[in-house]
Specification:
The protein is α/β, with parallel strands linked by helices. It has a single domain, classed as Trna Endonuclease, Chain: A, domain 1 (3-Layer(aba) Sandwich). Helices cover 39% and strands 32% of the residues. Strands 1-2-3-4-5 form a five-stranded mixed beta sheet, sandwiched between helices. Strand 3, helix 2 and strand 4 form a beta-alpha-beta unit. The longest helix is centred in the N-terminal third of the chain and has 16 residues. The termini are far apart.
Length: 120
C-alpha cells in the first residue's frame, strides 16, 4: 500500500473483514470503466456486487476519492478510524455538494465494516 503505516493497517484489517465474508479483495486496485482509470485502496467483489473502499485517516483526500468513485460509477465505502473524522468528512462532502447521490457513498468506522457486510 502507498499510505503510511496507520492507513495500511486499517486497509489490511478491512481487507481481512471482507475476506472473512467471502469477498474477493484487491489492494491498490487499478479500475477502468468507460475510458476512466482510477486507483482504489481496496476493491471488493462478491457475485455481482462490487464495493470500492478508500481508507481515510485525514480529511485531505475525501472529496477527490469520492469524485473518482462517482465518475467511475462505483459504490464507495469511506473507512475511517474515528467518529470525529467520520463527522468531519461527512460535513465536508455535504458542503462541497459532491454527495447528492448519497446512496452510493457510505462513511463508516472500521469497527462497523463487519456489521455493514452482514446487512448486504
Amino acid at each position: 500500500m502507498r499510505g503510511k503505516a496507520f492507513h495500511n493497517r486499517i486497509a489490511e484489517e478491512t481487507k481481512t473483514i471482507f475476506s472473512n465474508h467471502h469477498w474477493q479483495v484487491y489492494t491498490e486496485h487499478r479500475y477502468r470503466k468507460n475510458g476512466i482509470t482510477t486507483y482504489l485502496d481496496l476493491f471488493a467483489i462478491k457475485g455481482n456486487q462490487t464495493i470500492a473502499c478508500e481508507i481515510e485517516t485525514t480529511i485531505r483526500h475525501a472529496i477527490d476519492n469520492t469524485l473518482k468513485a462517482q465518475v467511475a460509477g462505483l459504490v464507495l465505502w469511506i473507512i475511517v478510524p474515528t467518529r470525529t473524522l467520520r463527522r468531519q468528512i461527512e460535513r465536508k462532502l455535504e458542503s462541497s455538494g459532491v454527495t447528492e447521490n448519497r446512496q452510493s457513498i457510505k462513511t463508516i468506522l472500521l469497527s462497523q465494516v463487519n456489521t455493514e457486510l452482514n446487512l448486504l
